[in-house]
Fold this protein.
Amino acid sequence: MEFGVPHNRTAPLEVPLLAGVPRPRAAFHVEVADTAAELGYRRLRREVFVAEQGLFSRDDHDAADDDPRRRVLVARAADGSVVGGVRLAPCHEPDVGWWRGSRLVVAAGARTLGGVGAALVRAACAHAEELGALRFDATVQRRSAVLFRRLGWEHVRDVEVQGTPHALVRYPMDRPRRLAEATKAGLAGVLEELVRTPAGFLGDDGTPVPGTDVVAACDAVLPSLVDRDPAWAGWCAVLVNLNDLAAMGASPVGLLDALAAPTPQHARVVVTGLRDAAQAWGVPVLGGHTQFGVPAALSVTALGRTAHPVPAGGGRAGHDLSLTVDLEGGWRPGYTGTQWDSTSWRQAGDLREMGSFVARTRPAAAKDVSMAGLLGTVGMLAEASGVGAEIDVAAVPRPAGTTVGDWFTCFPGFGMVTADVPGRAPAPAGPATTATIGRLHAGTPGVSLRWPDGEVTRAIPGTVTGMGRA
């Protein structure tokens, strides 16, 4: 038995409806177990799985109990006693974002409290996402499968454990999909009557200026970032635009900025970040516009040159997908799990060598990893190329100490996704690391994840922007 509770009907809590009548104390609450609570949870498991159900002859202890990465959640009754629990543990070493829930148990005397098992399952799902899981499985007793289905779990297949019918179920960890939808899903409906992109470059990070060798890119920084961390906002405004030019193989020649700030003092801090970044990359700020007495806002336009821009939509079925990324650095203070700073301390030569990587490699397709995260970016490249994508989760380079969930959905500082014919060697990228992480295919649109056991799950179930093939 991996993940199941005895099949008992539960009675709802009775709540007084009369005004002025004090509400009763909560019948139970769920928390992360300390050492004492975990011992109580293990005693409860033996009472239920060994003595009551006879699923194990002596003890239900297994390897997950010895894994220091495990997390145990317990339900405590109002008197503090442990009346239920569940365990989470990673399924692979190193952790690749694949976790399993197991040993869900509810004490016999607590099965009329109302929803202890369901509360533990919900809490386990939330904690799995917090721990960076992008795949969360459980093997449950067949009679408990209906509970999991009601809680949003998907049936994968029937299995047998300890001679007892079970079902393998999976919770849809949809963090990459939510991010892609929040940042990119509305683009087609908004831009279809406005943008006239040159043929073959729909959905690119920048755009070739017709009749010239100029490439233009424009990005705005989130107003909340400009307000809370103005110097970093100025740095990022340069960084993201130069990454856009780099993804198209263009050499930067100049920047224009549009800055709004509540006070001149606030604007000066933003300009400090802009100036430091422009100097670090050796790209001049040619002009722009500044306004005071208004809410903070910042956008930058970057101009570059190349006779042969690399499109995002140049990928084809059978092409290898590669990631070139700077793994050094750390989370920006205040933005753990969302913004990785690999650039603010780099030497100018390293920044320029990474920035010229696409120009020197000239892959079939390229796109820089930005707001939609790695998987959303892969999804946009695949969409512009008219294909689907599959990522080998274990092959993705990742900094030590980061979770898969964070790394696959963050802004990584410098990160380039490229597509090209298999076996074609990339150019050196300075301090950045390059690895083949998957492939493009002619199958279903979107992005799938291939796991070490051969299972494939859907991370982004369809197109990202709706703008279609370039």
